[in-house]
Amino acid sequence: MAKQTTGTIGILTAGGDCPGLNAVIRGVAKAAMHYGLKVVGIQDGFRGLVENRTTPIDNKLVSGILTQGGTFLGSSRDRPHKMKVNGRTVDLTAEAVKTYHKLKLDCLVCLGGNGTQKSAWRLHERGGINVLTLPKTIDNDVAGTDITFGFDSAMAIATEAIDRLHTTATSHQRVIVCEVMGHDAGWLCLGSGIAGGADVILIPEIPYDLEIVAQHLLRRRRAGKRFSIIAVAEGIISQQEARARASAQHSSGGTAEAGGVPGAVYHGIHLVQEPVASRLARQLQQLAGLEARVTSLGHVQRGGTPTAFDRLLCTRLGTKAGELLAKKQYNIMVALKSNECVPVPLQKVVGIKRVVPVDHPWIKTARLVETCLGDEE
Ligand code: F6P
After folding, report:
1. 311 phi and psi, to 5 degrees?
2. How far is Cα 291 from Cα 72, in angstroms, rounded to an integer?
3. Considering only CA atoms, which of 143, 145, 160 is closest in space to residue 307?
4. Average pLDDT estimate for 35-47
């Protein structure tokens, strides 16, 4: 065993969970311990940091968790500078920093998506503590990395769902609308839609025209196709909504809120879902008399065991993080770039949402297999 260093790291998981979190905790902890670092687990994300709720991590605790879904540390969407306490929102950054020092940490390792990257950076900037992050989310929308962990597992679940919908849709000659998560990014819907052979794929990055979607479905029916599967991302917007949003933005001098899901209810920082699939099904019925059934995959996409790809990715990213921590490289995110695990400066990641570029090769791929993306090509 190569024990080259001393020190203590804290580790927490924040934001929405996904398959692979335990695999990353295991990777970071095992590698860090290999190099001689002590590891402390922090419960329920940044809330546990503020409230000093911790658990020591040893080899036994992280043994056998590689394949387990969720996070054994617990997670929350809390942010230190905007904590809800007794119905009030308070800045508890100082409490978070106090716990860091009380635990004598050399670095705080944060596993999370865009919100977590921001919170970690804020703690570094305002609290002067060392942080290291890892890119987690089924949405695949973290900048600075080619992929986030959890995405592949969620894509496999959504793809299997689309496969299953195909068989029942064929039996009954039906149109089925399947809603896929992803927040404001279309990666999950596009990836699973292509892999599952969806006939229409609607993503937030390409505002859709309902008439174009309806005509595509009617053409398929006339051609004798017994089924049509529509994969929709939860963040889709129509062309009409996109125009209204752009003009609101223009008239407010660019201050109007961009992004967001029409009809969605915002609760704190995160939206509470209202199935856009139902809205689309109703509109298709009204416009073209197409009867459509609806399936909203919801949190099933975040549950269960990670795929082999994610287990490998999580173990690679986690152990790389352990190695960098032993070298005292802080204030970075460990990313996958061109199949290499590399550190990227955290400030280059925060505040940037990586959505699907409209010229992305997956878009071209989808169009070449005659998938309708809801726009004029
Ligand atoms: O960010 C991951 C994600 O699953 C999004 O795809 C989705 O919009 C959101 O979280 C759901 O959040 P919650 O679990 O808080 O309902």
Report:
1. -60, -40
2. 43
3. 160
4. 98
* pLDDT per position as a tens digit, 94-118: 999 999 999 999 999 999 999 999 9
In one-letter notation, the amino acid at residue 154 is A
Q: Which residue has the higher pLDDT, 253 or 269?
A: 253
Q: How many CA atoms lie within 13 Å of 32's alpha carbon, on the beta-carbon side?
A: 33
Q: Which letter does DSSP use for residue 149 in this model?
A: B
Task: Ligand 1: list residues with CB < 6 Å.
Answer: 16, 113, 137-139, 181-183, 234, 270, 302
- What torsion, rounded to 10 degrees, do the Cα atoms 305, 148, 345, 84 define? -70
The pair phi, psi for residue 121, each rounded to 5°, is -65, -40
- Beta-carbon neighbour count of residue 87 at 10 Å? 5
CA–CA gap between residue 82 and residue 237 (Å, rounded): 29
Instruction: Give the atom of ligand 1 at the shortest distance from the alpha carbon of 188.
Output: 6
Per-residue model confidence (pLDDT) at position 264: 43
- Inter-residue contact 30 to 319 (CB < 8 Å): yes
Separation of CA 275 and ligand 1 centre (Å): 13
Q: Whose CA is nearest to atom 10 of ligand 1?
A: 16
User: Which run of H or E residues covers position 253?
Assistant: none
Residue 322 and residue 56: Cα distance in Å, rounded?
Answer: 16
Cβ contact 35:5 at 8 Å: yes
User: Ligand 1 pocket: which of 13, 76, 139 to mutate (most atoms <8 Å of CB)?
Assistant: 139
Active site residues: 139
User: How long, in residues, is the chain?
Assistant: 377
Tell me how far the alpha carbon of residue 94 lies from the centroid of ligand 1, in angstroms: 28
DSSP-derived 3-state class of residue 367? helix
Kindly give the number of the ligand 1 atom that is closest to the alpha carbon of 139: 6
* pLDDT tens column, 294-325: 999 999 999 999 999 999 999 999 999 999 99
pLDDT at 77 over 50: yes
Cα–ligand 1 centroid distance for 16 (angstroms): 6
